[in-house]
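Protocol step 4 of 6: record predicted structures for both targets in the notebook before any analysis. Target 1:
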Amino acid sequence: MARLRPLPRQKVVKILKSNGFRRVRSGKHATFKKKDRSGRVLITWVPHHKEVSLFVIKYIIRQSGKPREEFE
């Protein structure tokens, strides 16, 4: 398993969109939303920075329910 590292913002957005998330709001952060198969609504955000920090990557993984490997 590779180590997590900060990623470019566009790569994080691409990962979320490829997993069915859609942008619902944009302010200081872009908010992404998805409804999973069980009907649960998943919401996460991505800051408008050139690079997304490791702390935020971990938060997005937890909020989105996506496997860690997708962000490596």
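Target 2:
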Amino acid sequence: MQTSKSSYPVTKTDEQWRAELSPAEYQVLRQAGTERPFVGEYTDTTTEGVYACRACGAELFTSETKFGSHCGWPSFYAPLAGDSVEYIEDRSMGMKRVEVRCASCGSHLGHVFEGEGYGTPTDQRYCKKTISITRRPTTTA
């Protein structure tokens, strides 16, 4: 498990992040907050596309790895590329979890869980906050 980087390719001041993000986006992405389950626009969508960090636009997940976990937030079984996210040990809330952040800007995306019994190739559930990602539909030529 890797720890938080000291610098990221995309760096901005706190004031810049606050100016560019809505208060709710800032609370989740920059302060590791959460959103209520079952309220996000991507929770149950099956539209093809690439899911990117809402803060910096880095591509993180694809619809090919998205699955219905029925947990209230979008779930994926693997990131787009191994180095597109970083993992941080999270001992908040009285338990040990693994936080997932955008490797390009350090924004909080959610957590990853293992061994829950989902029939996915990795036995992992990357539980993402809808407010932390944006979907770019796949276009056909």
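Step 5 preliminary note on target 2. The chain has two helices and nine strands. The CA atoms of residues 12 and 128 lie 23 Å apart.
Proceed to step 6 after PI sign-off.
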